[in-house]
C-alpha cells in the first residue's frame, strides 16, 4: 500500500489522528531494519486527504539508511503533494519516539505548523507542532527575502 485517502470535512479530528496512528503501525510492518531491529512507521496526511506511508529502510553502509518520516515525505512529494497537515510516527516501543534532527529539518521544509503525533506501540499519543520540536529552525522562510540568490 503506497497511500490511501481519508475524508477531512471536519478537519483533523481525534478519530483521524487515531487512524493516522494505525496507518503508521501498518507502515512499520514494511520496515527493512536487519541491523538495528528498530522498526519505525510513519503516516503523513496531506491537505488533499491523501495519506502516505513510510518506513525506515536501513543499509549496510549505515549512512545510506532513510528514516520512516523522510520516506513518507519523499513518497508524497514524488506524487505531487507538498502541503501537509500531520504525521504520525510509531515504533515497537512503549515509549514515545521522536523524529531525529535530520528528519525534523527535512520536514520543516514543508511547514513549521505540521502536527507531529508520537504514537507508542500501545497506542498512546503525544501531539506537537514541528515548530515545538524544532524551535528557531532554518527553512525556506529564511531564504525568501534574500536578494543575492
Automatic annotation (TrEMBL):
<protein>
    <recommendedName>
        <fullName>Cytidine deaminase</fullName>
        <ecNumber>3.5.4.5</ecNumber>
    </recommendedName>
</protein>
<feature type="binding site">
    <location>
        <position position="103"/>
    </location>
    <ligand>
        <name>Zn(2+)</name>
    </ligand>
</feature>
<comment type="function">
    <text>This enzyme scavenges exogenous and endogenous cytidine and 2'-deoxycytidine for UMP synthesis.</text>
</comment>
<keyword id="KW-0479">Metal-binding</keyword>
<dbReference type="InterPro" id="IPR002125">
    <property type="entry name" value="CMP_dCMP_dom"/>
</dbReference>
<feature type="binding site">
    <location>
        <position position="100"/>
    </location>
    <ligand>
        <name>Zn(2+)</name>
    </ligand>
</feature>
<keyword id="KW-0378">Hydrolase</keyword>
<dbReference type="InterPro" id="IPR006262">
    <property type="entry name" value="Cyt_deam_tetra"/>
</dbReference>
<feature type="binding site">
    <location>
        <begin position="56"/>
        <end position="62"/>
    </location>
    <ligand>
        <name>substrate</name>
    </ligand>
</feature>
<dbReference type="Pfam" id="PF00383">
    <property type="entry name" value="dCMP_cyt_deam_1"/>
</dbReference>
<dbReference type="GO" id="GO:0004126">
    <property type="term" value="F:cytidine deaminase activity"/>
</dbReference>
<feature type="active site" description="Proton donor">
    <location>
        <position position="69"/>
    </location>
</feature>
<comment type="similarity">
    <text>Belongs to the cytidine and deoxycytidylate deaminase family.</text>
</comment>
<dbReference type="GO" id="GO:0008270">
    <property type="term" value="F:zinc ion binding"/>
</dbReference>
<dbReference type="InterPro" id="IPR016192">
    <property type="entry name" value="APOBEC/CMP_deaminase_Zn-bd"/>
</dbReference>
<dbReference type="GO" id="GO:0042802">
    <property type="term" value="F:identical protein binding"/>
</dbReference>
<dbReference type="GO" id="GO:0005829">
    <property type="term" value="C:cytosol"/>
</dbReference>
<feature type="binding site">
    <location>
        <position position="67"/>
    </location>
    <ligand>
        <name>Zn(2+)</name>
    </ligand>
</feature>
<keyword id="KW-0862">Zinc</keyword>
<dbReference type="GO" id="GO:0055086">
    <property type="term" value="P:nucleobase-containing small molecule metabolic process"/>
</dbReference>
<feature type="domain" description="CMP/dCMP-type deaminase">
    <location>
        <begin position="15"/>
        <end position="141"/>
    </location>
</feature>
<dbReference type="InterPro" id="IPR050202">
    <property type="entry name" value="Cyt/Deoxycyt_deaminase"/>
</dbReference>
<dbReference type="InterPro" id="IPR016193">
    <property type="entry name" value="Cytidine_deaminase-like"/>
</dbReference>
<dbReference type="GO" id="GO:0072527">
    <property type="term" value="P:pyrimidine-containing compound metabolic process"/>
</dbReference>
Amino acid at each position: 500500500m503506497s497511500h490511501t485517502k481519508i475524508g477531512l470535512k471536519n478537519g483533523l479530528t481525534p478519530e483521524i489522528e487515531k487512524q493516522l496512528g494505525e496507518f503508521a503501525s501498518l507502515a512499520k510492518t514494511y520496515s527493512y531494519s536487519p541491523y538495528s531491529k528498530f522498526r519505525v512507521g510513519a503516516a503523513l496526511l496531506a491537505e488533499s486527504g491523501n495519506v502516505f506511508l513510510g518506513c525506515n529502510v536501513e543499509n549496510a553502509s549505515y549512512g545510506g539508511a532513510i528514516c520512516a518520516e523522510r520516506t513518507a515525505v519523499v513518497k508524497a512529494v514524488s506524487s505531487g503533494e507538498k502541503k501537509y497537515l500531520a504525521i504520525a510516527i510509531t515504533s515497537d516501543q512503549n515509549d514515545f519516539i521522536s523524529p531525529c534532527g535530520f528528519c525534523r529539518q527535512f520536514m520543516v521544509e514543508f511547514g513549521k505548523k505540521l502536527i507531529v503525533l508520537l504514537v507508542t506501540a500501545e497506542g498512546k499519543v503525544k501531539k506537537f507542532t514541528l515548530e515545538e520540536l524544532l524551535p528557531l529552525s532554518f527553512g525556506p522562510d529564511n531564504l525568501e527575502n534574500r536578494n543575492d540568490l
